[in-house]
Amino acid sequence: MAQEETGKHHVPSTTSDRRSPAKDTQTSVGIPIVNDQRTTDLPSTRKRPSSPPRLKPPTFGNMAAPPRPGNGALRPPPSAASSLRVPATKVLSNALMAPTSSIMPPGKQVSRKVILEPGHSPLDWAALTSNPNSQLRGKDAPDNLIRVAPAQLKEQNGRKGRDAWTVYQGKVYNITPYVPFHPGGKGEILRGAGKSSDKLFMEVHPWVNWDGMLSECMVGILVNDEEIADTKSGGLDDMD
Ligand code: HEM
C-alpha cells in the first residue's frame, strides 16, 4: 500500500492517476515516457526500499544545483547599502586635512609635523602637566605669578641658558618644557620665544587648546613698562 502511495507522488500511475501532468507524455497505450525528469531518478517504484517515503530527505536527483552568486565564491550579494559606502582609503590625520598655514594655497598644504622622541607624545605631556611636582614654570620664574615687562620677555628667548617664554592672549608662558613635545618641532615653536606667539599660533593651528595644554607653564601677564614702574614688587598679588 505504501508503495502505491509513493507511486502516486513520484511515478505516474498508468491507470488511475488522472491528476498527473505526465499523462501528456504517455504513449497511446498509456506507457509513461521515462525521460521525464521527475522519473529518471526513480525508474521504478517497486525497487524503492520499504521505508516510509515521507521520512526520506529530499533529493534533487540530477537536477542542477541552484546558481551561486559570484561564480560560487562564498560572498553575499552586494547590498543596496554597499553602493552608498565611501570607498576605503587611507585615513588621514587631521593635520593632513587641516590647513598648515592660512597663507598656503589649497593643494599645496603639507604636514610639517615632526617625529617626536620616545616619551614625548601628547599623552606624556598630559601626564607631566598633571603632576604637581613638574615645575613647568621653570627656573627663571618665581613661585608666584608675575608681571613681565617687554624687556624681560625679550631676554627670555631660550638662549644663553635662559628659558623660552612667550605670550599668548596677554599671558606669559614658559614653553621650554613643551618644546620637545611640540608636534610641529622645536624650531617652529621657538619662533615665538621672547615675544608674542598670537599671530604665529593662530596662523598654524587656531584649533589647538593653548590654555588647556600650557596652563601649568604660565609665568604671569605681560605689562608695559609704566605698569612695572608703578609696582615695586612685581607680584600680581600686590595689585589687589
Ligand atoms: C610660535 C608658536 C608656534 C608655531 C610657529 C607652531 C607651529 C606648528 C607647526 C608648523 C605645526 C605642524 C602643523 C602641521 O603641519 O600639521 C604645529 C603643530 C602643532 N602645534 Fe604648534 N606651533 C607653535 C606653538 C604651539 C604651542 C604653544 C602649542 C601648544 C599650546 C602648539 C601645539 C601644537 C599641536 C598640538 C600641533 C599638532 C597639530 C595637529 O595635530 O595637527 N604649538 N605647530
From TrEMBL:
The regions listed as transmembrane in this protein's record are none
In terms of domain of life, where is this protein from? Eukaryota
Q: Which Gene3D superfamilies match?
A: Cytochrome b5-like heme/steroid binding domain
- What GO molecular functions are on record for this protein? cytochrome-b5 reductase activity, acting on NAD(P)H; heme binding; metal ion binding
Supply the PROSITE patterns for this chain: CYTOCHROME_B5_1, CYTOCHROME_B5_2
Question: Which keywords label this protein?
Answer: Heme, Iron, Metal-binding
InterPro entries hit by this protein: Cyt_B5-like_heme/steroid-bd, Cyt_B5-like_heme/steroid_sf, Cyt_B5_heme-BS, Cytochrome_b5/Flavoprotein_Rdt
State a GO cellular component annotated for this protein. Answer: cytoplasm
Domain Cytochrome b5 heme-binding span(s) in chain numbering: 145-223
Annotated Pfam families: Cyt-b5
Region of interest (Disordered), residue spans? 1-85
Protein name as catalogued: Cytochrome b5 heme-binding domain-containing protein
Species the sequence originates in: Knufia peltigerae
